[in-house]
Amino acid sequence: MKHTLICSVLFLISHYISGQTKQDSLAIKRAALDYIESQQVPNPKQMEQALHPRMVKRTFWKDKATGKDYVRETTTESMVLLAESYNKNGDKFPATPKKEVRLLDVSERTASVKLIADEWIDYMHLVKINGVWKIINVLWEFNDISRQQ
């Protein structure tokens, strides 16, 4: 009995020290979902609330003329504009879009997330600023990498 009590207390202390709460996990997942859902049903305000103002989104691309790979970058401002117009005609996503969020690692003020959404995989870093979780980095690729050309 004493051993069980000690183990329980140690578990609770370690959980408290790590800083991760159920509310944090839900808020992190909500930010990732806001990111993708704001593109599925155009909503720039939803995108803006998910992103840190200095977010950078990156992917690799291939220059058609030279055949060389390079890194493309997108900013928060560009993503907010994208959310306004990308799926305006409702033809960019299936009727029931895929949006799977996996929490890879969560600490007190940082988190790593993998978002699997239809044709894309997005790896995200989030920060907790003034009590709010925001996406600050995104590295993405197509599920079919031959499309990144």
Helical content band: 25-40%
Number of beta strands: 6
How many helices? The count is 4
Main sheet, how many strands, which sense, barrel?
A: 6 strands, mixed
Shape: globular
DSSP strand content: 35-45%
Order of helices and strands: HHHEEHEEEE
Distance N to C terminus? 62 Å
SS-based class: alpha+beta
| Rg from Cα | 18 Å
Strand order of the largest sheet: 2-1-6-5-4-3
> Would you tell me the overall average pLDDT?
89
- The unreliable regions are 12-17
Topology:
Blueprint: H1 2-18, H2 22-40, H3 44-50, E1 51-62, E2 69-75, H4 76-85, E3 100-106, E4 110-117, E5 120-129, E6 132-142
Q: What can be said about this structure in brief?
A:
With 149 residues, the chain is of the alpha+beta class. It contains four helices and six strands. The longest helix has 19 residues, at 22-40.
Could you characterize what this model shows?
With 149 residues, this protein is α+β, with helices and mostly antiparallel strands. It has four helices and six strands; from the N terminus they run H-H-H-E-E-H-E-E-E-E. It has helices at residues 2-18, 22-40, 44-50, 76-85; strands spanning 51-62, 69-75, 100-106, 110-117, 120-129, 132-142. Strands 2-1-6-5-4-3 form a six-stranded mixed β-sheet. Helix 2 packs antiparallel against helix 3 and helix 3 (44-50) runs antiparallel to helix 4. The longest helix is centred in the N-terminal third of the chain and has 19 residues, at 22-40.
